[in-house]
Amino acid sequence: MGRPRKFNSVKALEDIWEEYKADCDSQMVLTHDFSAKNSEFVSKELKRSITYTIEGFCVFAGISRAAFYERYADNEKFADTVTRMKEECEIDARKKFELGIIPPQLAGLWMSNYGYTTKSEANVSGNLAIEQTKLDGIIAQMCGEENE
After folding, report:
1. Could you tell me the pTM of the whole model?
2. What is the pLDDT along the chain (148 residues), one digit of tens a residue?
3. What Cα–Cα distance (Å) separates residue 111 from each residue in 4, 24, 49, 75, 138?
4. Which among 35, 57, 90, 97 is least surrounded, fewest beta carbons within 10 Å?
5. Beta strands in the chain (DSSP E)
6. Contact 119, 137 (CB under 8 A)
7. What residues contact residue 115 under an 8 Å CB cut-off, 6+ apart?
8. Helix, strand, coil tally for the chain in percent (to 5)
């Protein structure tokens, strides 16, 4: 017999998920910049957001990833909530990519977690071959467009 669940109800899991998202959206970061006006370095604490992940949630909640999938993802009672959590992680990453919070050079890495590819493909439309860039392919997938 395994260890007991940390969350005995769907509501308890949803509540800690909301706490995790709020924590991700309100990370305080100390930033430094040079003020040309005053000829000095200025430091300020700013609120920044980080991307939601199931792994980050597990650390926040104090459970292992294996336990999360075993006790919640594979349990019919929690399956809908876990699916929604995964979908919210994907949407959050997409939003942060589109808003420029995730640097464009990392977009392929992040979005590959959700089944998007960065392959360049040559598409044929009539007699013209069109070479798509990696970023164009990701954007087309994110917008739900199909390659013609």
Report:
1. 0.66
2. 456 778 889 999 999 999 999 999 998 877 778 778 888 888 888 788 888 999 999 999 999 999 999 999 989 999 999 999 999 998 998 888 888 887 877 777 777 777 777 665 545 444 334 444 556 666 666 666 544 4
3. 34, 18, 17, 27, 8
4. 35
5. 27-35, 40-48, 122-125, 128-131
6. yes
7. none
8. 50, 20, 35
